[in-house]
Amino acid sequence: MTHHQARRRGASMRWLFALSLMGAAALSPLPAAAQASPRPQASPQPQSAPPPAPQASGPELPAADQLAIKNYTLNEDVLGRLLAVTKEARAQNIRPQPAPDPAKVRNLDDLASYAVGGDAKLAPLVQKHGFTPREFLLANLALMNAALAVQARSDPNLAKTIDQSKVNTANVAFFESHQQQIAAQMSEGAK
């Protein structure tokens, strides 16, 4: 893979996980305001991960939302629909939203509304693939959190930021068994 392809693949991964950046705090043992250090974005292959993104600071998601993220179960159907949304969003030139003002995000519903509200083409695309905005966000968060948990195994600094009690081990196993499929989809977007 050329350097240019790796950069484009990283951009594709950012699209898939862009909606998840704020919600990743659900895995962290620290209050969001205390997490000032950069955190790498998830990538199926940590050696080609994009540069670290600054962590959002602000209030944590409510406990019920954190539990909803942990309890969301990834499966073949969900992954297929997530990848389809990602592929079609790229084809329609839908760009990820910048991180919202954390003070305006009180819960997952606020974050989901913000995430799909930035481009008029995204909400119908999400709906076309059988997701509500909230479920689309939950699926993205579950996938990203599983990716972060896998990446943390080889990154001691990242591992220190993850609260293992909030990790869904079934989703981690699912991510590991589909890592090549996810990487292939993201590489396809780099072409």
Radius of gyration: 15 Å
Report the principal-axis shape.
Answer: globular
Taking all residues together, what is the mean pLDDT?
75
Helix content: 40-55%
Euclidean distance between termini CA atoms: 10 Å
Instruction: Count up the helices.
Output: 8
Give the number of domains.
Answer: 1
The largest pleated sheet is described as:
none
- The succession of helices and strands, N to C, reads HHHHHHHH
SS strand fraction = under 5%
Low-confidence stretches: 1-26, 28-58
The tally of beta strands, per DSSP, is: 0
Structural class: mainly alpha
Topology:
Layout: H1 3-18, H2 63-71, H3 76-91, H4 108-117, H5 122-128, H6 133-152, H7 156-160, H8 169-189
Helix pairs in contact: 1-8, 4-6, 6-8
Q: Can you give a write-up of this model?
A:
- This protein has one domain (3-24, 62-189).
- It is built from eight helices and no strands.
- The chain is globular.
- Helix 1 (3-18) crosses helix 8 and helix 6 (133-152) packs across helix 8.
- It has 191 residues and is an all-alpha fold.
- It has helices at 3-18, 63-71, 76-91, 108-117, 122-128, 133-152, 156-160, 169-189.
